[in-house]
């Protein structure tokens, strides 16, 4: 899928070729998010996404609701999901649009979204690497895969410290407590 947005008569802006909500089974995605107590809400294609920090097709987060459209990139769905998982309960209780967090938490969010990609049909971590790079995520080593495989020990340590991964370093469906 490589959609475009009309901007003037006869012209269009090509969007990055990334997997979007329309490319997967939203029922399975709902089940995945519910493991974290997060509810997926699909808004009409012609409406702005409430709670979206970046606007456009990016997912929005308001309380325990993740708001998306069919053109929302799956990396955005998982990124905002992981913000919800990685923030402490006090922030989760009042989250609206801006997930906040610090540098270490942001790295943990990116790491966890890559792990969760393996839970989504047609996505998986290798496609997540590609989509993150296509969308413009910036990593010191130049790509999401290089970062994940060679420079993300701090993110893994953060996730383990907050008990968000099990002994095999896979998601255990816990949310951060403190």
Could you walk me through the main structural features you see in this protein, from its secondary elements to its overall organization?
With 178 residues, the chain is α+β, with helices and mostly antiparallel strands. The protein has one domain. The chain has seven helices and five strands. It has helices spanning 26-34, 74-86, 89-94, 103-117, 124-135, 144-150, 153-161; strands spanning 4-8, 11-14, 39-42, 60-62, 65-68. The strands form two sheets. A three-stranded mixed β-sheet has the order 3-5-4. Strand 4 (60-62) and strand 5 form a beta hairpin. Helix 2 packs across helix 4 (103-117). The N and C termini lie far apart (40 Å).
Provide a short characterization of the protein structure:
With 178 residues, the chain is α+β, with helices and mostly antiparallel strands.
Content of β-strand: 5-15%
Largest sheet: 3 strands, mixed
The level of helicity is 25-40%
Total DSSP helices? 7
- The chain-level structural class is alpha+beta
Tally of domains? 1
Assembly state here?
single chain
Strand order of the largest sheet: 3-5-4
Question: How much is the radius of gyration in Å?
Answer: 16 Å
Mean pLDDT across all residues, rounded?
A: 91
Helix and strand arrangement:
Blueprint: E1 4-8, E2 11-14, H1 26-34, E3 39-42, E4 60-62, E5 65-68, H2 74-86, H3 89-94, H4 103-117, H5 124-135, H6 144-150, H7 153-161
Parallel strand pairs: 3-5
Antiparallel strand pairs: 1-2, 4-5
Question: Which terms summarize this structure?
Answer:
two-stranded antiparallel ribbon; about 180 residues; three-stranded mixed sheet; disordered N terminus; 7 helices
């Amino acid at each position: 899928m490589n959609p475009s947005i009309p901007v003037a008569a006869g012209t269009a802006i090509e969007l990055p070729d990334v997997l979007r909500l329309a490319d997967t089974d939203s029922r399975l995605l709902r089940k995945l998010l519910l493991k974290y107590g997060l509810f997926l809400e699909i808004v009409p294609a012609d409406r702005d996404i409430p709670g979206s920090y970046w606007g456009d097709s990016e997912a929005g987060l308001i309380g325990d609701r993740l708001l998306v459209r069919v053109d929302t990139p799956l990396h955005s769905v998982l990124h905002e999901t992981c913000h919800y998982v990685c923030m402490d309960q006090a922030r989760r209780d009042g989250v609206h649009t801006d997930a906040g967090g610090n540098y270490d938490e942001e790295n943990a969010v990116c790491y966890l979204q890559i792990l969760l990609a393996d839970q989504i049909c047609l996505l998986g971590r290798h496609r997540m690497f590609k989509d993150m790079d296509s969308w413009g995520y910036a990593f010191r080593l130049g790509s999401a895969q290089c970062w994940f495989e060679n420079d993300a020990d701090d993110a893994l340590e953060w996730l383990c410290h907050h008990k968000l991964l099990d002994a095999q370093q896979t998601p255990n469906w816990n949310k951060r407590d403190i």
